[in-house]
UniProtKB/TrEMBL annotation:
Pfam families in the record: MFS_1
The species this protein was found in: Nonomuraea roseoviolacea subsp. carminata
Gene3D superfamilies assigned to the protein according to its UniProt record, in alphabetical order: MFS general substrate transporter like domains
Localization (cell): Cell membrane
Domain Major facilitator superfamily (MFS) profile: 1-397
Name under which the protein is recorded: MFS family permease
Length: 407
């Protein structure tokens, strides 16, 4: 009963706009969880080579970079609600294209405009605007808790999306990948309807510079440093995104689509549950420790996966790695919101998201290049990704260990 009352009180504090944002991201990430497991299979069925898969994923990330950069600079002026609705419509168009077309050029165009994601990580144009609305919705002392809710619900939805991919692989009527992208388009329409209900309180408050007609956007120095480090982290993680891992598990261990759906259901559900510890860890150890300690352990586990002799042992290591890999996310988002004034939050959130998206746009092509010949068997992208991730942890600690660590 006390937990129920606390949850009800938290939902009230989150506000209508906050609840709509959390729900929209959950629907979107369910779609990512479903399609990312089956994306490589869809392209293989169309006769595309592995390098074409890498190119498509890189172009999808590049499209997110362009859109995130544009929204980071102009969403507050154009209207946050309007820009989120536009992005949702483009997402729906992309889903329809992937469900109905086998033309590689059409799929490239759809991937560029439609926030197609190779994993449940949300390095998309939506995230910067949504995080600004959430930071504006709640008390700053509640930011880590609010961002935990935002991420946990999304990861739980992504896990269910991977489970849905396993179910779609069992139905006999259409290919699982085509069904997944048709569902993706439907979910995009649902997110548009949720964004449509956002109230005017979701919009950015007018700043003195806006009232005076000055629109030059300045990116604070700490945000530039964070963006560079987040780009390194995103590149390292992008070498082992869900689509790449699913393909490697199939090649190395002979895992089936149904098996992969179950594996990635667990691989998305476990970090969602583990991320509930983020507010406690941040309050006890500070935001930086909450960001880095579980992240470092996750990278060490990632480095061990290529040495696993069997599918079962590799899956065990993967699940342990996934459990720890996302605990840092709410603390990272809260830290980014804390180091800039409220008027710069959309820019800060979007710029760090852009940096991550730029790095992720290169990662799939690099990963598929490393998956050639004998490098497939040794899991080279996983080893390189783990090494770069550990480098990020060490560098971030040295750069920001003297910064305020309040949660």
């Amino acid at each position: 009963m006390p937990n129920t009352r606390a949850a009800s009180r938290f939902l009230v504090e989150l506000g209508r706009n906050g609840r709509l944002i959390v729900a929209a991201r959950a629907l979107r990430t369910f779609g990512y969880g479903c399609t990312s497991v089956l994306l490589a299979e869809l392209l293989a069925q169309d006769g595309d080579d592995p390098w074409q898969t890498g190119l498509l994923l890189s172009l999808a990330s590049a499209g997110s970079v362009v859109a995130s950069l544009t929204l980071g600079l102009f969403a507050d002026r154009w209207g946050r609600r309007r820009t989120l609705i536009a992005c949702g419509c483009l997402m729906a168009v992309a889903g329809v294209a992937f469900a109905l077309s086998e033309s590689y050029p059409i799929l490239l165009a759809a991937a560029f405009i439609g926030t197609i994601s190779p994993s449940t990580n949300d390095n998309t144009p939506f995230s910067g605007v949504e995080q600004s609305i959430l930071a504006q919705t709640c008390d700053p002392r509640r930011h880590t808790t609010v961002f935990t809710c935002y991420n946990v619900t999304a990861m739980a939805a992504g896990a269910l999306g991977a489970l849905a991919a396993a179910a779609l692989a069992l139905q006999p009527w259409v290919t699982a990948a085509d069904a997944a992208f048709a569902l993706y388009a439907l979910l995009a329409v649902c997110t548009v309807l949720l964004f449509w209900r956002l109230s005017p309180e979701a919009e950015a408050p007018p700043s003195p510079r806006h009232r005076q007609g000055h629109h030059r956007v300045r990116v604070p120095g700490p945000v530039r440093r964070l963006a560079a480090l987040f780009a390194l982290d995103a590149f390292s993680g992008g070498l082992a995104v869900q689509s790449i891992l699913a393909w490697w598990f199939a090649q190395r261990y002979g895992a089936t689509s149904a098996q992969l759906g179950l594996v990635f259901f667990a691989a998305n559900l476990l970090p969602a549950l583990a991320q509930l510890t983020a507010p406690f860890l941040a309050s006890r150890r500070g935001l930086l420790a909450a960001m880095l300690l579980p992240h470092l352990a996750a990278n060490l586990l990632l480095a061990a996966i290529p040495f696993a002799p069997t599918l079962a042992s590799a899956v065990t290591l993967l699940l342990l790695r996934q459990t720890l890999s996302k605990i840092d996310v709410p603390a990272r988002q809260a830290f980014t919101a804390a180091i800039v004034p409220p008027a710069h939050r959309t820019t800060a959130a979007s710029m760090t998201s852009v940096a991550r998206s730029v790095a992720v746009s290169v990662s799939p092509l690099a990963a598929t290049t490393l998956f050639t010949g004998a490098l497939v068997m040794i899991g080279a992208p996983l080893l390189v990704g783990a090494a770069l991730g550990i480098g990020y942890d060490i560098t971030l600690w040295r750069a920001f260990r003297a910064a305020p660590m309040d949660s």
